[in-house]
Every structure is written in C-alpha cells, then in structure tokens.
Amino acid sequence: MMVDLSSFSEEKFDPKKWINGAVQQRHPQDPVEKHLVDLEMKLQMASEEIAASLEEQSSAALLRVPRASRDVLRLRDDAVALRSSVANILLFLKKAEGSSAESIATLAKVDTVKRRMEAAYETLQDAAGLTQLSSTVEDVFTSGDLPRAAETLANMRHCLTAVGEVAEFANIRKQLEVLEDRLDSMVQPRLTDALNNRKVNVAQEMRGILIRIGRFKSLESYYTKVHLKNIKKIWEDFDLKQQSNKLANEKNEVEKVSSNFDSQSNLMIISYSRWLPSFYDELLLYLEQEWKWCLLAFPEDYKTLVPKLLIETMSTIGSSFVSHVNLATGDVVPETKALDKGILDILSGSMPQGVKIQTKHLEDLIELHNITGSFARNIQHLFSDSDIHVLLDTLKAVYLPYETFKQKYGQMERAVLSGGIAGLDLRGVSTRIVGVQGVELSETVRRIEESIPQVILLLEAAMERCISFTGGSEADEIILALDDVTLQYISTLQENLKSLRAVCGVDVTVDTVGAKKEAASHVRKVDFTSNEEEWSFVQGALQILTVAHCLTSRTSVFEASLRSTLSRLSTNLSLSVYGSSLDQNQSHVDNNYGSGEVSTVGKALLDVAALRLVDAPEKARKLFNLLEQSKDPRFHALPLASQRVAAFAEAVNELVYDVLILKVRQHLNDLSRLAIWSSVEEPSAYRLPSFSAYPQSYVTNVGEYLLTLPQQLEPLAEGISNTDTNAEEPQFATDITEWMFKVAEGATALYIEQLRGIQKITDHGAQQLSVDIEYLSNVLSALSMPIPQVLATFHTCFSTPTDQLKDLVKSDSGNQLDLPTANLVCKMRGVRLD
What we know:
Blueprint: H1 15-24, H2 32-143, H3 146-163, H4 170-196, H5 200-212, H6 216-258, H7 272-297, H8 302-331, H9 334-339, H10 343-348, H11 359-382, H12 388-399, H13 403-407, H14 409-422, H15 437-470, H16 475-504, H17 531-579, H18 586-593, H19 598-605, H20 608-613, H21 617-629, H22 639-668, H23 697-723, H24 729-756, H25 763-782, H26 789-799, H27 802-812, H28 819-828
Helix pairs in contact: 2-3, 3-4, 3-5, 4-5, 4-6, 6-7, 6-8, 7-8, 7-11, 8-11, 8-12, 11-12, 14-15, 14-16, 15-16, 15-17, 16-22, 17-19, 17-21, 17-22, 17-23, 22-23, 22-24, 23-24, 23-25, 25-26, 26-28
C-alpha cells in the first residue's frame, strides 16, 4: 500500500478525514486492525526518512555559509574599485568636453565662411554667365533653335534669381522679359499648327519650350483659342439655321403672293429646346476626342487643359445662352412668343400691362435645365480623372447661364402663384338680388371649398419646381413666396367672408348704389323671409364651417409635407458643408467621414445645389439655419399664413354662430318692451284663467328653431367626414353637440338679457311670462342642457303670487334662487323687501 503524503502539507489538513479515507481504500477481506498497523508502520518509516534527509541537508548548508561570506566580501571590494575608476573617467570626459566645444565653435565659423565663399563664387559665376548669355542670346534666336533659346532664357532667369536685385543687371531683366515674349510669339504659330493638324511630337516640343520659360498660361491660352473657334461654329449653327429658315419662309410668302398656288410649304422654325440636346451631343463628342488626343500629346496637362476649354467656352457663349433661354421660355406661350420676349423681360417690367409669367414658362425653363443637367453628368463622367476642384469649376461653368434665373427664382414663383390665385373663381356673393341669396351663398361657399385643393396643388407644384430647378438652394426664397401667396389667398377668402356676413344679415354693409343697410336684426325680418330661405342661410353657414376645417387641415398637412421636404434637403445638402472644406482642409473630411467616404463627399460637391452653395457661404448659412429649424416639430414653414388661417377659422366660427343665433335674436328683439307685461286682467262675469295656458309665439318659434337645429347640423358631420378621412364618428357628434350647446346657451343668454330689460310687469304679465319661461326650460331639457340658475329664478319668481314673493325671497337666502335676479324681479313687480 502506497502512502500519499501530499495532503499533509495542505493548510486545512484533517487527520481524521485522512485516516478514514485510508481505511476505505483497504481490501474488504483485510482486517481493519492489520491495515491500521501497516499504515502506522509506513508512516513511521516515512517520518524517519524525512528526518534523516533534513539532517543531511542542514549539515551541507552549514558548510556552505563561510564560503558565501567570503564571496560577498570580494564583491564589495570590486564594487568600490569600479566606483573609483568611473569617477576618474568622468573627470577626464569633463576636461575633454571643454576643449572640444571650443574646437567645434571654431570649425562652425570656418564652415560658415566657406559656404559664403562658395555662394559668392557661384554668384560671380552666375553674374559672369549672365553677362555672357546676354551677349549671345541674340545669336541663339537668330539660329531659330527654339529649344536652345528656351534653355538660354531659363538659364538667364536662374542667374538673375541668383544675383538678386542688382542695379547693374536691371537692363538684362527687362531684356529677359522681352525675349520671353518674343519666344512665346515664335512658339504660337507652330503650336497652333500642331494643334490644328494633330502633330503630337511638335505639340509636345512646343509645350516643353513654354514650360521651360514658365509660360504654361500661354499653352492654355493657345489651346483654348484654337478649339474655341470650332466650338463657336457649333454654337452659331442654331442662329444660322433660324435665319436661313426665316429667309426661306419669307421667300415662300413672296412666291405665294405672285402665283395662284402654294409653291412651297413653310419651313419649321427650330425650337431651342429641341436644338440644345444636339449641341450638347456635338460638344461632348468634340471634348471626348480632345480628351483622348491630349492624353497622348499632353499627358501631364490634359486633366486641366480640356476642362479649361469647356470653362472658356461657357464663358464666351454665356450671354448668348442666357438670351436664347429667355426667348425659348417665351416661345412656349403664344402671348409672349408674339412679343419675342421671355421670363427676364417680364421681370424687368418692359412687357405690356397684363403679361405675366405662367407655369409653362417655368416648365420650359426646367426642361432646358434638365437637358443641361444630363450634359453635366456626362462631363462629370468624362472628367472623372481630373482634380475635384477642376471638376467643380467646370460644372459651375456649365450651369452658369442659369444662375441669373436661379437668383430671380423667388420672383418667378411669386408671379406664377399670384397669377394662379388670381385665376381662381373666388367672386363674392351678390347682396342685391333678393330671394336667391341663399342659393348664391351656397354657390360661393362651394367655389371657395373647391379652390382649397387647387391652391394646395399650386403650392406643392411650386416646391417641386424649386427642387427640380435649384436643387433646393432657393428653398428659403420659395418658402417666403409660398407664405406670401398663401396670405394673398386667405385675404381673398376673408374679403369673401365679409360679403357673406353682409348677405347673411349679421353685419352693416353698403350696397352698390350706396344705400345703407341695417345691422343684424334689421337687415332681414322674419316676416319678409321664407322659412326655406332662412334654413338655406343656415346650411350655407355650416358649409363655411366645413370650408374652414378643410383649409385648416389641408394647410396643416401641407406644412408637414414642407417640413419633410426640408428635412430631406438637409440630409442631401449636409455633405456640401463638409465638401466645401475640401479646398482648405482635406483632413477635416477624413476625420468626419473616413478615408473610404471622401469620394462620396466629392460627388456631393457636384450636386446642382451644392455647386451654388460652395461659393456662397452666407447663403449656405442662411439656408442651413432654415433647414435646422425645420427639424423642430413646432416649426411653422408658413408662419404668417398659419396665423392667418387660424384667424380665418375664428372668423368663420363667429359668422356661423351669428347666423345660427340670428333667428333667435330676431324673435327675441324688443321682448322687454312687449305690451303684455304691463297689461291688466279684464273683468269678466265668468271665472276664467287669469293668463294664457299657452306660451307666446316668440318663445315657441325660438323653441321650434332650437329643436330643429340638430337636424340642420347633421350635414356638418358629413362635410367634415368628406374633408378629413381620419376623423372618427364620435368627433362628428362632439362637433354637433358643441354647436348645439353653444347656440342654446346664446339663446338663453339673449332671453335672460331681454328679461332683465323689463321695467315693470303686472301679475297677469308675470303669469304669462312664467309659462313662456317654463316652455323654454322644457326645450333646453329636451336638448339635454342644464337650466341656468338665473332662468330658474326668473321662472320661480314670476310664477309666485305677488303676496308670497317677499316670503319666498326671504326664506331662500340664496340656496335655490339667484338673489340679484330675485331682487330684480321684486323690483319689476313692485315688491319691497325691506
């Protein structure tokens, strides 16, 4: 049996547990006593072995201690000796450092003198060489060796730079400038011939000469001048064709007059929008050919030469391009085509009165811009190897002819939208034709309601045109235009609303002949108007309410759409802010986007809006402030229009209420001065009721009107459901209930006001009035409206006999009665409370 002694060294060793474990490992047939005896013997032997080993190792360790002590003493002596040697070396180095510093300073002075002497020597050589070159340069020019002449002039330039501003060489400096101009003029004909005849070797040689004398601008100038002539011929082809067609047509007209039959049909005048794509195709083909040829002839410069050619081309034809675009936009409308004018002419005010910009004008302008946009994309692809700044300048030149139109785009849209608003049929209702005013009222409201979606479509189309034409760079201007035009529209609606108030009889107005009409209750009397016409006015007023709801919801949805559009613009144009910094700090782009996205920033720069914003930081700041504000849910894209819409809705609510309460007001007019209140009961031989058992006609008419009103309000729910598909049925009921309660409360308030105006009332009048009040209270209860305490107090006090009224008021103490009202009734009935 092997004994495992490793567990004895453990910190938490348990002897009992170890013994029990050892006993469990015995063979089942072995006795426990025998197993324990063997285990004890093995443990004793193991302990003896450990003790012997420990004694042997201790003796060996004691023998090694003196030897280790001697080694430590020797190492300490060696360390002391080493420290002394190092100190001596440091002392020696300090002495050497002092002497070497003086030597190095001396050597530095000697080196400075040497370099100055070398520079003086080189300067003297350059001066001598400059004098020699100046004397022999004429012979070089006479020889006709242009490369040698270029090399000579380059050496002279180098020598002049070396000698600096020395008075003795001022004449040579002037001579060098003259010689460089002379060599430049000698290169021009050869370079021009090489460019015209595609001589690659000669072109390369002439380019090298110009580069050697620092005249790369001359290379650009000569290259552009040669090819600009060819491109201008392509551009002038349009005018030539137009003139030839006009001459041919005039000739045909003369022949027709001199003969009895048509000799030849007229030639069609080519439209600019149809010709422009062909011009761009020919120009693109020409540039592609030049790109390929310059790749061979000028491999170092082709990425700048060909774009420079296009930039100069657009600069040369720019004014003509603008003029053609202006005339082309005018040709799409017969009115301006006959005048041979366009958008810019209309904006300048040089057109006859009444001629305005139309949607077709802008649509044709956008079509031309889209054609140019397709050409710009092809140019971007062709010049993709060019530097981003060169490509940027090139594309700006391509779009440059449209810049005049874009700067005035806000004015254009204002004119178009104002014309669109003016073209709507929004004439007010006539107040002169009696008997059909209800029909005209309904027709006027119908026209207003139909105009709302038309106006929203006009506004949406204007925003789409702005995005299409300017890429959103004029979003701030178009927003102002939309706001102003919406104000113009709402102002027209408010004017119509005034005429509607006059027709409905709720305002004082003056008719066309100047006769003054009475206000409110005096404009239309109940006796002179049929019941059907009365309800036609009510229905017309409810239609106006539907119009206000439609206008509010449509403008709200349109504003939300504008915010969404501005948010998309903010995302699309945000890269242009970083892209514009490419000119100054490329690392800024890398830090914000990563090196893998720089190309994306470069492409963003080439957006039609970003092309304008890069060179207009102030405009960009203003635009991005607007786009940042649009992210706030509280932002109003049309701030003034939103306020005016709310004011219009409030005015409509006032009109509707005045119309709905008008009949009540007419029936209750002069109620306080009715003769029945002061009437005395007539004596009779028979026992008769002292008052009428039925309410009077004025209150029954009011009651019948209030009870019929819910049926008249039902079309309100239908109108709202037609204008708001998201509205729910309970909302309809809420609107009807609110208006019903509002009218009922108004009628009650008018009635109470009339009751307060009664100066004196007899018992007979009080009894009749209590019946009238009870009838109106029953009507209010039928409408589920609570009875006001003031009205209940009037009923209680008027129905109480005169001799009991004082006790009633004294005993109530304000619990059931409204005391001021009760005191007023006591005064009317002549009852003294004191």
